[in-house]
Amino acid sequence: MELIEKLDILADAAKYDVACTSSGIDRAARKGRLGSTLAAGCCHSFSADGRCITLLKVLMTNVCVYDCAYCVNRASNEVPRAAFEPRELAELTIAFYRRNYIEGLFLSSGVLCNPDHTTELMIRTLAILREEHGFRGYIHAKAVPGTSPELIQKLGHLADRMSVNLELPSQKSLRLLAPDKDKQRIIAPMRQIRDGIAEDKDTRALMRRKTTYLQKARPPRKERAFVPAGQSTQMIVGATPESDFQILTLSAALYRTLSLKRVFFSAYLPVNDDARLPGADAVQLNREHRLYQADWLLRFYRFDVGEIVDEEHPFLDTDIDPKANWALNHLDFFPVEVNAAPFEALLRVPGIGVRGAHLIVRARRTTCLRETELRKLGIAYKRARFFITCAGKYAGQGAEFTREGLRARLAAPIEGGAHGRRSAKVTPGQMSLFESVQTPEKLRAAGGGRALGAVRAAKRPPKADRAAPSSRRTAHAGLPGSKDAACAGDGAFGWQRALELGGAGPC
């Protein structure tokens, strides 16, 4: 099989991985080496749902011994199979980088033979990039659950960021849809990566103290940092009946116990015919979007999970964002005076972000803030005005200060957006390096290196009422609803017990 055909197959197979983010590290260019990495991010282009796409996102191989129900590359599927040799993938990456097609590499893989063999192929690829070509760009590597700790350690010193996919929000769902995987094989490498990052940081902090000693021999060359950009994970949303409350509770536990940089949510996309999977035709993009917004509140806005969703209302409102929903449920907290409110109170105002709150606190030291000043600071004034006062004057005249009145204003569709990618209401997923019609002849003629659009598109689901997601909880074969399950807390507590109690749990 020719290289361009392998790239066509394996780049397309990698489009379902969404853990593709900014670099998170600073590494300047160096003479004799190739590339650099900026903390602000290595990607400049984004797909319609905000995903970075200027990495070469590819699989080492789509051959897999596992038979996960939701995966297009599962062993029972009859799809074209391919595998890169380590050297040809490394040289392809360097060639694309030199042509300015990409700024880094996102490398995942199916399980070829066994996890250790697959990881060894990835290590050889990254070693060629780092050691032979002197590549200093960003590399994100997926760790295969079940890999030996020694190989995880080697891979971590070659990659900038690593991730182990949690796959599904509960152990019960994992046993049903991915019977070849188990919680111990997933959590063990995540713990090793967390501990390795902490140990590496401590060691380097001690070395920076520059203790004076009589040097008898030249110290060995400094080893590469271990996963300097941290680790992340990914969960599939919508393939199983777990609620948003269970998903966000698990996310909070992952941040707390494993020090993850990011939890990614991937809306379920039906690619296989399987009785264990739901029969939904539409991708739940709106639900995925709300989960990302709620996750942002947990990480940056000092919210707790119980403030966003709870067991009585376990699903996020799809019509308004979680922060606005909290504000509507706590109107007694509003309006707040922007010229006097503490920083924590400003963070709770819809339309005011973390940066905006900092700018308000700084600007009000020297001036009295009103509408004009707030707009200059970049505040989303059309949303914030219903929840603030400026110099004692309420800014949201014309709207009834009740939950129903404000909800109607906040849930109204935003005017504009009649052009651009977002107006199409679709998600193209990963942008392709190729033409829309991907034949080997056209790829050879084009040179195989132009990002010219999306390789898939799925219609955005219609807006549904709040009760709609809960009705799906019992619609999945083999997965009872959360209230009737024998293991009642599996989604909300099963993974957490495995995380916090060393893998021991009742489920």
| Terminal Cα span | 45 Å
Estimated helix fraction: 25-40%
Total strands: 11
What series of H and E elements makes up the topology?
Answer: HEHEHEHEHHEHEHHHEHHHHEEHEHEHH
Global morphology: globular
Q: Count the helices. How many?
A: 18
- Rg over CA atoms: 24 Å
User: Mean pLDDT across all residues, rounded?
Assistant: 80
* Sheet with most strands: 6 strands, parallel
> Unreliable stretches, pLDDT < 50, 5 or more residues?
44-49, 419-423, 435-489
Number of domains: 3
Structural class by SSE content: alpha/beta
Binned strand content: 5-15%
* Largest sheet strand order: 1-2-3-4-5-6
Question: Would you summarize the structure shown here?
Answer:
The protein has 507 residues and is α/β, with parallel strands linked by helices.
Account of the 3D structure:
The protein has about 500 residues and is α/β, with parallel strands linked by helices. It has helices at about 5-15, 85-100, 115-130, 150-155, 170-175, 185-205, 245-260, 285-300, 305-310, 320-330, 345, 355-365, 370-375, 380-385, 405-410, 440-445, 470, 490-500; strands at about 55-60, 105-110, 140, 160-165, 230-235, 260-265, 335, 390, 395, 425, 460. The chain has a six-stranded parallel sheet. The chain has a three-stranded mixed sheet with strand order 7-8-9, with no helix packed on it. Strands 10-11 form a two-stranded antiparallel sheet. Strand 1, helix 2 (about 85-100) and strand 2 form a beta-alpha-beta unit. Mean pLDDT is about 80; it is low at about 45-50, about 420-425 and about 435-490.
